[in-house]
Amino acid sequence: MQKNYQVLLVSQFTLYGFLKGNKPDFHVAMAPQRAKPFYASLVDRFRNAYNPDALKDGVFGAKMKVSLVNDGPVTMQLDSQSPKNTIDAAES
């Protein structure tokens, strides 16, 4: 935020795909009816917390060709699932 970097938000359900035989299987991805409002709320939260002019987003469900130069310090993948508490299990 201090450097006013641009942010590109793209919904990428295919990250949850895996091959089942020779076909992709996306059954572990969030259903589109839930995913679209979830993605929209994430975009809104970024717009409210950051410079809206620095935020770009994709079109949910559209086929997009995205190119960028990653000049920022980090690329993050956000997961909608709660992380499992592995520290407690390891200490038990």
UniProtKB/TrEMBL annotation:
Reactions listed under catalytic activity: a D-aminoacyl-tRNA + H2O = a tRNA + a D-alpha-amino acid + H(+); glycyl-tRNA(Ala) + H2O = tRNA(Ala) + glycine + H(+)
Uppermost EC category: hydrolase
Superkingdom: Eukaryota
One GO location term (cellular component): cytoplasm
InterPro entries found in the cross-reference section: Daa-tRNA_deacyls_DTD (IPR003732), DTD-like_sf (IPR023509)
Enzyme Commission code: 3.1.1.96
Signal peptide annotation: none
GO MF, any single term: D-aminoacyl-tRNA deacylase activity
Recorded family membership: Belongs to the DTD family.
PANTHER family: D-AMINOACYL-TRNA DEACYLASE 1 (PTHR10472:SF5), D-TYROSYL-TRNA TYR DEACYLASE (PTHR10472)
Protein name: D-aminoacyl-tRNA deacylase
Protein species of origin: Medicago truncatula (Barrel medic)
Upper classification of the organism: Eukaryota, Viridiplantae, Streptophyta, Embryophyta, Tracheophyta
